[in-house]
Amino acid sequence: MTEEAHRPRRTSTDRFRPILLGCFAAVFAALAVTPSYRDDWLLENLLVFIIVPVFVLSYRRLRFSNFAYTCLFLFLVLHEIGAHYTYSEVPYDLWFQALTGTTLNSLLGLERNHYDRLVHFSYGLLLFPTVWELFEERASPRGVWRYVMPVTFLMSHSVIYELIEWTAAEMFGGDLGQAYLGTQGDVWDAQKDMALAAAGAVCGLVLTVSRKRR
Questions:
Q1: Cα(86)–Cα(41) distance, integer angstroms
Q2: Mean pLDDT by 10 residues, the chain (214 residues)
Q3: DSSP of 63-85, one letter per residue?
Q4: By the 8 A CB rule, do 44 and 82 touch?
Q5: Burial of 161 (0-12, 13-18, 19+ CB in 10 A)
Q6: Domain residue spans in the chain?
Q7: Residue 61 contacts by C-beta under 8 Å, 6 or more apart in sequence?
Q8: Could you give the CA distance from residue 149 to residue 155 in angstroms, rounded to a whole number?
Q9: Which pTM was predicted?
Q10: Is residue 162 within 8 Å of residue 194, measured between CB atoms?
C-alpha cells in the first residue's frame, strides 16, 4: 500500500476548525485596531486570551461539532464588537438607522444602549451547544439532570462573570471601572444580565433538544 493509503483522511470538521479559527483571528485583528478605549479592550479580552488557546490546545482530546464551534465563533465575534467600542457605546442604533431611516431604540421604546443585554442573552444561547456536548462527552447525566445541568452550568458562569466585573471595577475604579462594568446607571444591571443569560440557556436547551429530535 502507498503512503497516502496509510494517511488518515481529513474530515469536514478537521478542515472546518482551522478555517473558523482563521476567520476569528481576522475579526480579532481588525477590531483590535484603535479600539475606543484600549485599557477596557484589554480587560474585556483577558478571558478570550485564555479561552481560545484552551480550545485550540485541547481539540485533540475534546472535539465539538461544527454547529457548536460556529455558535462559539458567533458569540466571540459579538464579544469582540463590544470590546472594540465598549459594550455601552456600540453604535447599533446608528447602523440600524443607516439601513432603515429610524433607530432601533425608538422602534422598541428603549432608552439605554442594550448591546450588553444582547450579548448576555447570546452567552446562554450560543454557548449552550458546546456545554451540552461537553456534558454528553465527560459527565453523561441521566434523566432530568441531562437537561438541568447544562443550564445551571451556564447560569453559574454568568454569576462568576458578574463577580469578576465587580472585582475589576473595584480594583481599577474611575472611567476604566465604569466602562468595564457598563451599568449605565441601572442598579439592577447585574441581575438583569444574569437573568438574560439564564433565558438564553433555556432557549438553547429547547433548540438543541428540538434539533436532536429532528
A1: 7
A2: 49 79 96 92 91 89 91 97 92 92 87 89 96 90 90 92 79 65 69 92 93 77
A3: ---HHHHHHHHHHHHHHHHHHHH
A4: yes
A5: middle
A6: 10-213
A7: none
A8: 10
A9: 0.85
A10: yes
